[in-house]
Amino acid sequence: MVEANVRLLVVDDDVDTVETTALLFQLEGYETRTAEDGAEAIELAKAFHPDVVLLDLGVPEMNGYEVARELRRIDTTKNSLIVAVTGFAQPIDELRSVEADFDLHLVKPVDFAVIERLFRLVEVVWPCKWSDNWEKLLPTQLQRQRRREQFFSKHLRSSSRKQR
Asked: Which of 47-61, 68-82, 107-121, 139-153 has the lowest mean pLDDT?
């Protein structure tokens, strides 16, 4: 169980997915809210201030990429952990997630146990609200830029090797 003050926003246009995911995380001690489209997610995030956002890329109104970019502009969500949980599985989709400032890109179907283990790992390696010194350790724009550069250099090297 996590501390009760960890806030999770689940965004997906599939009502069953949203409700099931939220319920599973509530049972683990997360405070959850749900949204079924991008515009609703932005409005809810402004009021709810989530620590973690699980965001489908194919939501209506605003797609997940647009939502992630907007969340990074809002003071109360600019340092949230934003995770793409999507059926978009091509390398270009992951690249677009990095460009949109997602922290992670997971491809559906994702087993709840995988996400739960990921969050347990996050408690150790990603400074978040449930760690003791989270305010001092939040990721900076420079750290995000370095992650992007590492991603691009990794994928550029692997694609250039394939072309040879």
From this structure: 139-153
Q: What fold characterizes domain 7-163? A: Rossmann fold (3.40.50)
75: which residues sit within 8 A by CB, 6+ positions away? none
- For 89-116, the pLDDT digits (tens) are 898 999 999 899 998 899 998 888 888 7
Domain ranges of the chain: 7-163
Q: Is the peptide bond before 109 cis (omega within 30 degrees of 0)?
A: yes
Residue type, 143: Q
Q: How far is 94 from 26, CA to CA, in rounded Å?
A: 28
Round the CA-based radius of gyration of the chain to a whole number and report it.
Answer: 16
